[in-house]
Design a protein that fits this description.
With 206 residues, the protein is an alpha+beta fold. Strands 3, 4, 5, 6, 7, 8, 9, 10 and 11 form a nine-stranded mixed beta sheet that branches. Strands 1-2 form a two-stranded antiparallel ribbon. It is globular and about 45 Å long. It starts with a strand and ends with a helix.
Length: 206
């Protein structure tokens, strides 16, 4: 089976070729990803939705993460990245439903894994609660939401833990409703500066 190819970039964000996903992370090439943040305003409260990554994921298993995200393949544009939302969450959105938060670059290095991402970040601002997710269980094990102010306070160090509520998918694909306290160690280890930038840009739009 042909390995997925990603566009790779230099430090000036200029395309310099293509590489497999494995080589991208092995050699630390800059590459493009698509990030989708779902934020809902429900009466007087604002919530941010967080996916729980599958325990079988090679990278960052069983951790809370961006609502939906994925790599952009070499033959894809940023607009094509919206497919990740349907694939991972089972909800239909178009690029016209989203608000661009720009491109955020960051790097995470651990063991033999170098993740240098150019993240095309988008906000989906809704005035309704979402509860009809159909998750791609190979990728996503559950969906949770957190009060947005609590989420901000966590990443700015005002509190140690926050309450999230949602569900996990059981082995028979039924949903188990859950509420739990989580701290920063329950999240994918994006740099704190990344979370700060995302929070700041979301605040500008809500």
């Amino acid at each position: 089976m042909k390995r997925e190819q990603l566009k790779i970039f230099n430090e000036d964000r200029v395309v310099i070729g293509e590489a497999s996903r494995e080589d991208v992370h092995k050699n630390g090439y800059w590459h493009e990803v698509f990030h989708y943040w779902l934020v809902s305003k429900e009466e007087a409260e604002t919530f941010v939705y967080l996916q729980l990554r599958s325990k079988d994921k090679k990278d960052y298993p069983n951790l809370l993460d961006i609502t939906a995200a994925g790599h952009l393949l070499a033959n894809e544009t940023v607009v094509d990245g919206v497919r990740e939302v349907k694939e991972e969450l089972g909800i239909d959105v178009t690029i016209d439903d989203l608000i661009s938060l720009g491109v955020i670059d960051y790097c995470v290095t651990k063991d033999h894994f170098i993740d240098k991402e150019l993240a095309n970040v988008f906000l989906h601002l809704s005035d309704k609660s979402f509860d009809k997710f159909t998750l791609q269980v190979e990728e996503v094990a559950g969906m949770f939401k957190a009060d947005f102010n609590d989420f901000c306070n966590l990443w700015y160090g005002e509190v140690e833990t926050i309450m999230v509520s949602g569900f996990e998918v059981n082995n028979d694909r039924s949903q188990i409703l859950i509420k739990r306290q989580v701290g920063k160690d329950h999240f994918v280890s994006h740099p704190e500066s990344f979370y700060h930038t995302v929070i700041h840009r979301i605040k500008e739009k809500i």
